[in-house]
Structures are given as C-alpha cells and as structure tokens.
What we know:
The chain is built from 11 helices and 6 strands. The chain has helices at residues 7-19, 42-56, 70-83, 107-116, 124-134, 139-148, 158-177, 199-203, 210-213, 239-242, 244-259; strands at residues 26-27, 62-67, 88-94, 187-192, 228-233, 267-268. It has a 6-stranded parallel sheet with strand order 1-6-2-3-4-5, with helices on both faces. Helix 3 links the parallel strand 2 (62-67) and strand 3 (88-94). The longest helix is centred in the middle third of the chain and has 20 residues, at 158-177. The protein is globular.
Amino acid sequence: xxxxxPHKSAKVELSLAQEMDIDCPVYALPWPSFDELYPPTLEAIxxxxxxxxxxxxxxxxxxxxxxxxxxxxxxxxxxxxxxxxETVSFMAFIDVTLPANPLSxxxxxxxxxxxxxxxxxxxxxxxxxxxxxxxEGSIAQLLEKAQQVGAMPLSRDFHSDYLMYEKIAQxxxxxxxxxxPALSVKVHQFYATEPLLSRRARQAESSMDREASSxxxxxxxxxxxxxxxxxxxxxxxxxxxxxxxxxxxxxxxLSTALNSSPTTYLCNNxxxxxxx
Length: 276
C-alpha cells in the first residue's frame, strides 16, 4: 500500500514488486474512491480496501507491505482485520515514520509540502513565493500560481492535477487524524540510511526529529521495541526506491523477510495505479 502520489513513483514501486523473489503472489490494490466519504477517515478507507482484499482472499492470514504514508493505511487495514478475529502474519514498513500530531495546515499547504516541494524545477526563491501563497489560497489557486512561476509546465492537465492533489490532501488529513492503536503484530521497518529533509527544514537548518532519524522511525512509541525488526536500506526516502541499485537491495531484503514469514496466500504490496 502507499499514499496517492505522481505517476512516476507508481512505475518505480511496480519495479520493486517485479524484482522481488518470493513464494507468494503480490497484489496491487486500486486506490479507493473518497467521493462518498466526506470528510474521509482512515478507518473508512481501510474498510473499502478490505472489501477488495476479501474478493481475492476471503480469510486470513494476511501479509502487508507499505511504502511511506501508504503503510499507515495498511496498519489501519490490519487493525480492522484483527478486530474481526482475522490473522495478520506479516507487516512490512518501507521507511515509514510514525505520524506526528494533527497539524493545522490547509489543503494547499499540504499539497505544497508533499507534492511541490520535491520538484526539481522548484528553487528556494519560488518555493518561498508559493509558501506565502498556500496559506491563503486553494489547491486550484496554488497550482495556477505554480504554473505562473514556472514550477509546473503549462502543458500539464490542470484538472487532472487538481483532482489528484485534492485526494492527496484529503488522505493526509485522514492520516493526521488517525488514532494510532498498539496492535499485536510484528513489524519489519526497512529504513533509508540517508536523511531526506524538506526544503523548509533545510532553510531553517534544523535537524531531523527523533522519530525521523531513528531506525524504528518512532514506532517504538506505539509498539514494543522487540516487535520491530529494523533493516537498513541504502539511499534516502526517495532514492531507496528510485535508484535501481538501492531498490534491488530493498527487493532482496523484503523477499527474505517474506519468505521466512508464515505461509499465506496473499501478499498485499503497493498498487500500481495509485500514485505516491
């Protein structure tokens, strides 16, 4: 599982699944619609996804892997399955930091931080312009401004971008409001060994917080440390997936963990069409 993000990342994550050597099938689940869920909650989104899972595998045990914030949705899915006496035998997090407390960010600010900040075409000067604009404007206005300052090409499909980024903002809001329970599961945390700081953090010359810098990524605040198995992967949060050499290390490590876990019929990795 993963959070909705741009199309290029979807291809990278599909490559990860193709490079894995495992003894069970890997299913990529479609991102659920939020249209009938307003405001959407992570629990409601999880319920939608479970209905799809059960069409493929009606009974557990289940195994799940998730990249970035999409793994939080996988955790919510596991929570719901465990509540109805299903078995979740494997949980893999791919560089997943425990979510912080809810932030008072507008949807435009969420899109700026999660989508526009990583763009190579956005330099610090234009980021500051958009940062000041995001606090007052809507997502549509922010995207229009990003095109005006050259951070996004004018040829981009504005309507499609708006719908995708609105979904990203809705998902992040649901994630921020999710009350993280302590589940009776063991977690493999495949963590990136190199830091990835946001533009705002770099400008402020601030260091990563404890959660982001710890191999456990803060999950020892929710789970017993003994239940978290950490596995280092070269690269940062982005390059551990995008650089082929790093991705192959991740694929081998994830395959080893899956092949040594209890036998199941479903490996739920990331969907190929929902892009993080």
